[in-house]
Structures are given as structure tokens and as C-alpha cells.
Fold each of these.
Amino acid sequence: MGNRERRRVVITGMGAVSPLGNDVESSWRAAIEGRSGIGPITRFDTARFETKIGGEIRGFNAELYAPAKELRRMDRFIHYAIGVCKQAAEQSGLEITAENAPEIGVLIGSGIGGIETLTDAVLTIRDKGPGKISPFTIPMLLTDLAAGQVSILMGLQGPNYAVVSACSSSAHAIGEATEIIRRGQAKAMFAGGAEATVCEVGIATFGAMRALSTRNDQPERASRPFDKLRDGFVLAEGAGAFLLEDLEFAQARGAKILAEVVGYGATADASHVTAPAEGGAGAARAMRMAMAGAGLKPEDIDYINAHGTGTPLNEKYETMAIKGALGEHAYKVPVSSTKSMTGHMLGAAGAMEAVFCVKAIQEGIIPPTINQEVPDPDCDLDNVPNEARRVDVRRAMSNSMGFGGHNAVLIMERFEE
């Protein structure tokens, strides 16, 4: 069944907190200017760490979005989730009332949740004993509490839970929230993801996998998807969110519609814990599923925001997956990785990249893949090297792939009556 036969789901608000900026506009401007958000880690002493760089959030004031007393009882990833949902609500002009609250829900994805809180708790037990553990530790670290706290603070009584699929988490959250609205189980959904993993355990554990870049002397050049000189991804954090609405609900209240979600694909590689399936077969099926659900052909896709993490196998097989799904059109469609600028925001990446797709549709400009010096011959598509490009984007596809073989693909479209 194509999506035209179902309820239409539109985007009326967006929020973003990223290494590039603490809202959508500042993050977007930095991206189309090709600026990197990567720098030396300042949250902890990196002297003993091989990787000393990351995509930190700078200058974010959570007290703009929630009371200080409440914030002290939340992990940072929850702070970011609240911030982006409040931003999306403000942009949308949605007034939450006793009448509509039961029809508005929240799905927030996170790959890891409150890892910093868990780390602090372990150190407290070791150094001071279990009697010194805060009673708020569990609600601070649980992944579902991002969605839970947003619903409490905003009074949202509709469907409410977490989506956890590693680096696909927030793309899955947006896709599943779209399906909830299509099924008629909600009129509106806040959907996205949040992550706060630039901490000692985050850097140490991903470093132990030999997954992280160690280009410590040139942090702004460290994240380099599709480039032969890459040496791993750059761990980053932040959040992104959409306010999704049933079209009739949005129109009845006179909302400004930013774009429409028309396609969603979700598949599994069933192959390996961390490596993508050889040849990208699972990702290709997810792309085809998203296009089929939207009633689209490959040539209808004008831009792809790639998963593009900065690791050779991921990008080789994603390139193969795009070719498998789009055929000859794969060589004609621009494919960029904004992780070259944001770093890899893990469970928040898909939502952040979906926001960039909507901005590309609105403004007719595609953000670049920066740090392209020596193109990897295995990645031979149009990767929009180093400079943004003016393109009329009617439809944009966003790819997300997570450890465990999770694939999620979203297609956003310029809204037309």
C-alpha cells in the first residue's frame, strides 16, 4: 500500500543540538559553510587516551527548556532531548491542551542512554560505597527516560517509549512515529534521538574497538567519510527531533508545513555484530522498501544523506547498497555525509541528518562531505566534495545503519497539497 492511500504525515517543527550549533539554524549554517564541529575533548583529562578529540556540545543552556532543580536529576542526553523537542514545539506553534494531549506522543531513540551517569555511579560505589549512590541514578540513566521526561514536562499523554537500535535509533523513532500517526493512534508525535557519549567510558570503549580516529593534531580534519586517508569515526553527541503531525490535524490548526515524510524502510542484515553485511544487501532492501512505500522510483530521489561514518567497510558497502537500490540513478544523485562535520552522533545521528534533509528541501542547497582529499575508489558516487551545492531537492533520502545489523531509511518530500 503506498503512503498516498494512508494518512499523510507532515513535519511542522524541528529541533537540533549538535557540535555545529545549539539549534537548527546555527547547525545548518555551519554545515552548508563546510565547518567542522570537531575539537579537543574538554570534558575530561585525555592524557591516557589514544583518542583526544570528539564532537562536544558547547554552550548549551538546558535551563532555557526545563527548571534547574529538575535538570540536576537528569543525564545530559535527556537535557538535549528536552531541548530539541521544545524547539520543535515552538517552531510548530502547537498548543498542548487537556483536549489534545492524549493524542500527542513522544518517541526518542538513544543508542546508549545515560552512560555518563552509569560511569559516575560505578566510581561512587568504588570510592565512597553504595550508600552514597543518588536515588535518581536509575531514572537518569534509563534510555526511555528521555521520552518519559519530555512527556512529563510537556504534558503529552500519547504513545511514549524509547527506540534502541544503536546508530539507527533516531531514524527508527521517526519512522515508527510516522507509522503510529498513519495507523490513527496519535494525531502528533515528537520523534528523534539524543546522545551524550563523549565521556571517559564512551571514548575508551569505542577506542578499544579501534573504531575512532586518532588524528588528534588536526581535529577538524579527522572525520573524513569516503576519503582514503580516513582512520576511523569521530564520536559526537547531541540531539535532533521532528514534530510530526497528521496532515488534517496540522491543517485544521493552520500549521506551517515544513515537509512530508513519505517513505520508511527498516531491515536487518542478520550478518555481524558490528560490520555491515557484505555488499550492503540489507541497506539496499531498506532503501527499496522506503521508495516502494512512498510510490517512488529511483530517479525520484534528488539527494541522499549517507550514513557515511568515516570507516572503510561501512562506506564501501553503503556505496554498493545505493547502487543496488537505485541502479544507474545512483551515479546521478548527490550523496553527502554530514558526519564529516558533526562527527558521529550515534543514536541521534539519524534525526540530525533528517533535519538536514528537510533544510536541503527547503533551501535548495546540499551540504558537502568535507575533508575530501584522496577519494576512495570503492566510494565512486557523487559525494559532494568539500563545498555545498545548489540543487533543487524535492525528495531527500536519509540512511542510518547500526551495530547489530539495523538499517533504517527515511524519505522526506517537499509538501504539496
Amino acid sequence: MEGLFYNKQMKILGGILLFMLILALGSYAKLNFEKIEYLSPMPATITVTGEGELFAVPDIGQFSFSVMAESEDVTAAQELSGTKVNSILEYLREQGIEDKDIKTLNYNLYPRYRYEERICPLGSYCPPGERVQDGFEVNQTVQVKVRETDKAPSVIAGVGERGATNISGLEFTIDDVEVLRKEAREKAIVDAQEKAAVLANQLGVKIVRLTSYNEQGGGYEPYYKAAAMAMDMEEAAGFGGAELPMGEEGTKVEVSVTYEVR
């Protein structure tokens, strides 16, 4: 009997201890959950936008010219075109223009046709004329960069004197636009850093680290005043003494920067 009574007491005591343990664990968990409610899982951040804009005087003059040649024979048309183009290229090199600044944009070879009218008896049906091949035409277009911009008018005049059939698109621009964009980006980042420092001071927080960076635009955005024109041979030969203002060309970069703060 005493053994049974003892076992019953031990079971009751064990149940009470288990209940108290569960109660204690529940209270601890509730306390932690209450703390979590007041703690944000995400760190506090601030985001600022910086802008950088830069202008520079164009450092190259750029234009294109075409050479056209015709002949009854393919080989003869190509040789005639080659002779004209080689004469112009030799002249360009004499002016100090390097091969890296001379680029063929396109080279086209076309068959040339003419229509032969039929001789028909008076009052009878006369079919339309017949298309007959009448030789070949070669057309080559070349783009040129002139790094000594003040020489562009005289270079164009020389090209025209050596058989170019069309000269167009003289414009003054920046050769390496990425250099300009890099400097504009640096200015934008400095602008963002300064704005972040001011904002953090106003909010009474301290900048901990950079969390994200984004650059708007993603490409070159030109802002410029440039001379761009198409001209005939008479205009090419000296531009009639007209002044060709180059203006300025530039780019603008915007960055968005996010910092973690405490």
C-alpha cells in the first residue's frame, strides 16, 4: 500500500513540475516575441541622388565622303574606284591623318541597266522596251576623323579635288566620350556623398556602410552645339570663308546611393 501511495505522489509531483516548466518556457517565449515586435528585422537606411554634368570642347572633326565609278566591265569599275580612293587616302595620310581614323562604311557593286526601245511597224502592237545590262557601278563610302579640328575645312576641300563624288556630315564631337562620362560619374558620386552626410547629420544618425548603388541613364547623353551639314563641292572648297563654331559637348550622369545608418 505504501509503495502505491508513494508512486502516486511522485506522479503528481512530476506532473506539477512539468506544468511549471511548460509555463516558464511559455513566459520566456512570450517575452522574446514581445521584444521582436519592437525590433525591426531590416536595418535603417537613407537614399540620396547625386548628379554630375560635364562639358568639353570637341576634339575631333568627323565627315564622310563617297567615290563612285562606272565601267562596262566589273574589273575596270573596281580599278577606277580603287584609283580614286587610293589617291584620296594618300592625300589624307599626307595631312597627318592616321589609318585608325579612316574607316570604310560601305562598299557596293551594282550592275547597271538601260532600256532598249523596240522598233515596231506603224499601227501594230509594240511591246515594252527590253532591260539590258550596261556595265557596272562601284560606290564606296569612307569616314574620316580629323584630330586637328582647324584643318577640317582644308582637308575636305582636298578630298573634293581628288574625285570624291559626295561629302557630307561634318560635325565636331568628342572622340572618347567614356572619359567624359567617367568624370561626370565621379562628380555625381561626390554630390551623393555630400548629400548623404548632410541628411545623416539632420536625422541624428551615423552612416555605417553602402548598401546599394544605381546609375541612371546607362548610356551616353550628349548635350552639344555642333556644326553638322551636307555640302556640295563648291561649299567644301573652303566653306566660303564661313566660320565653323564647335561649341561644347557634354554628358550628364545621375546616381542613386543607399546607406545603412544607425
Amino acid sequence: MKTALKFAALAFSTTQIFALAGFTASTALAAEFKLRLLETTDLHMNLLSYDYYQDKATDQYGLSRAATLIKAARAEAPNSLLFDNGDLLQGNPLGDYVAKVKPLKAGEVHPAYKVMNQMGYDAANLGNHEFNYGLPFLRQAIATANFPYVNANVFLDEKKPAGQETHAFTPYVMLERQFADAQGTRHSLKIGVIGFVPPQIMQWDKAALEGRVIAKDMVEVAKKYVPEMRAKGAQLVIAIPHSGIDRAVIGSMAENGVSGLADIPGIDAILFGHSHAEFPSKAFAGFPKVNIEKGSINGIPAVMPGRWGDHLGVIDLTLNNDSGAWKVAAAQASIRPIFDREAKKSIAAEDAMVERTVAAEHAGTLEYVRNKVAFSSAPIYSYFALVEDDPSVQIVSNAQIAYVKRALVGT
């Protein structure tokens, strides 16, 4: 009898021990950390706060000022990732200078990447204006970036059956990073990053792209590759569509397809652009699926930080693995301006590194835009355009006529 009681007591004690051990193990495994996603978009070669058209400095845009916001945002958060969403290489005389006036030589780093490589970008997406100077220049330029470029919906035009085409660029990447929690413990995370561009590039840059590449619908491509990224171990998926959001229901091959992407299971955050708008903001109040207080679309945190570096996009994520896998437990999106529009004053100084890094290209661009192209012996004005011939319009018409006459010679 005593032996039986002793055995029962031992069994009870052992059960308790295993239960306690299981509780301790699950508690040790459970963890949480915060991750900040930062985005620039539609910089259009505004690396500096300089208006080349008016030939004067400005304090209302420029990556040189956004860089100051990026430093501050990183200082606030121990864990962060930085992305660019395209329309970077074209858009002002500095872009033209590097692409056409004094083209990049073999081995030369594009000035945008001279800056961004130092800033430590983690990945970038192609915008539609990246294709403006043609595919050879695009490939030459992005090859000098020290971070990966992604695009999933542009394919080589190889006349292959649907579904068998070759990607023109890397469709997505897997970033493997370590992040610290509040206690200082480090956790490994595999982050999938996928990018998209409006399929309308085939019309906008037809001369440069027809017969070379084809573009597909962003949402349909995402439906294929987001599950593939998850199957390959992506614990967090970030979509970077160079695309905006429309109030209306989107259709196939939509230019602004972000709301459709927000419906796809498996996407954890959307960093978008293209529209030169600011999200979250009151401008999007009343849009379907949008929560401007949280900065989300269909519950997915999303951000679009304007254009030309006038804002920085910020998404703050809280991730935990209570369920046994890392998941987003909370999120908040916001945008940070470099200029206070109400007070009409700058709130971000220029980063001296950016100015120093592209000083030579900036000087060359100024010489290019200041170069005399013609001389007029009569004043050019448009004051009386409604009542008499207008010299400001006529001079442009004369130039167009001369150009077409030359183009038609021999035809």
C-alpha cells in the first residue's frame, strides 16, 4: 500500500514537472520586437534641394533633406529597413545630364547610387520613368546600386507561351536580417520584398520597350509570387508597387492597383507611390478599404510619401511569435514632411554628405542648363496673346516646324 501511494505521488510529481517545463519552454520561445520600414519614392533625380528650372535653391524638396529625416527615424528605432519605390533616374536636368549630356562611362557609378549606397538602402523597386532612357541605360545604372532591385511583372518578349516567359528583372528578393527585442535578444527574420510597375509602360515607352519586354497585370502576378515567397520561408512580405490607389474598383492591367494588392493574403505591408500623393492623409478619407488614422488599406499598413523627397514614409510594425510564427501584431503608418506648409518653413536641413557626393554632377548640370542656346533681338512676352500674335508661342512653333522639316528630309 505504501509502495502504491509512493508511485502515485511520483507520477503526479512528474506530470507537474513536465507541465512546468512545457510552460517554461513556451514562455522562453515567445518574443516580440518592433520594426520600422522607411520609404522614399518618386525622387525624379531631386537628389539636392535645387530647382534647376529656376536655377535656385529650394527648401521644399530633395533627397538631401529627406536624408536628415531618415537619420532621425533610424535613431528612434533600433530596427529599421530602408526602401526606394522608383521613378528615381529621370525627372530633372540632372537626370538628363547623366543619361544624355555626359553619359555614364563603363564602371562609373550613377550619382543617385553614389548617395543611396552610402545611405544604406536595403532594396528598391523600378518605376515607370526608369524605362524612359531605354533598357541599356537602365541596366547600366542599377548595376551600380549596392542593394537589390526588384520587379515581378515585366518579362522578356521571347514569344513564349503564357506562364513560361523569363523575368526581365529579379521578381523578388529574400532579405535575411537580425533584429533586437526590448531585452536585447536578437531574432532572425527572413523578409520577402516584391516590386511592380504599371503595365502602361508598354504605351508610355513603346519605342524603347516594344519587342524587348512585355508587362503583365500587377495583381495577377502577385497572386502567383506571394504564396511562392511564403513557401520559400518568407516570414514577412513587403510589396513595393510603383502604383497608386483609385477610389473606383480596379480592373485588369490597372495603372493604380494598390487596393487589389491589399486583398492578397500574405502581404504584410505596402510601400507605394507613382501618384505623387501623400498617404495616409485626409485626401484619402472615404476611399474604400482605407483607414487614414491607422494608415492602412484593407487592414494592411501602407504608405506613400509624396514626391521629390518632400516626405519620408514610415511604417512601424510590432511582430511577435506567440503563435509559433512571426506575425504582425500591430502597425501604424505615417508620413514625415521636410517642409511645414502652414508655417512655411523648412523642418529638415540638407545633409552635407549628399551635397558633397554629387558636387561634380551638380556643377556639370548647372553649366549645361545655363548654356546659351540662342539669342533674341526682340523681347519675348505673352502679355497680349488674346489680341495679337504671341511671340512666346511663335518661337516654339518655329522650332517645331524646323525640327519636323529636318526629320522629313528624304521621306
Amino acid sequence: MVAVSGKLQICRDRDDDVVLETALLGNAELLVTRDEDLSRVPELAEALAPRGVSILTVRHFLDLLEADGDDRLGAG
């Protein structure tokens, strides 16, 4: 649990700013979303990358999980 201030304002949708602030304050490595306001805006990814947070679409995340599973099985 993290306490957000609500002061972060970098996204078009203010509700999404709370999600971004939670990811940053919670030291998340990944933010997996179907929300195109988050996943399709390069400036957001650029702003979060220096803080160690990557934004992925659900499809990209599932592809990474599948590839990781293949690597563990020696198939990749």
C-alpha cells in the first residue's frame, strides 16, 4: 500500500495520474495496462523509465511471460 498525494499531473486523464503515482511510489517495475492513454503515449514511458518503471500492454506482458516460460523449459 502506498499513499498518493494526487499531485502528479503528467497524463491526459487525471484518473490515470493516480495509477502512475502509485506505480512510482510503490517502486513498481512494470505497469501492465489496456488503457491506451498509458500504453500508447511515448512521453509517459520516457518519463517513467528513469525511475525504473516500464509500461506494457497486456499482450506484450503475456508474450514476455510465454517467452520466459519457454526459456525455462529450454525451448527458447
